[in-house]
Write a structure and sequence with these properties.
Blueprint (H helix, E strand, L loop, with lengths): L1 E4 L2 H7 L5 E3 L7 H11 L19 E5 L2 E2 L11 H4 L5 E5 L5
Parallel strand pairs: 1-5
Antiparallel strand pairs: 1-2, 3-4, 3-5
Length: 98
Amino acid sequence: MIRVVLPYHLRNLAHINSEVQLEISGHITINAILNSLEARYPMLAGTIRDHVNKQRRPFVRYYVCGEDISLEQPDAQLPPQILSGKEPFVILGAIAGG
């Protein structure tokens, strides 16, 4: 069971109140999680990554085990803590400005 934490505005858009739990088989990667998330909640398609090229949207960050993995390869295997559900895959909206 993969746990995914979404920012407040995306939870509202998807009409969910807490973290999402996904069943994913095969290699667990950023792309696998996002593909599964978008399949289950089609209204999220295009909000986290671009519709066409599937690149992460600006100001969206991914965190795993407290570390920012936003610049990692989207098809890299994620750590065992994510695979076991011990730690969530966190999607955050970054804020810019001063």
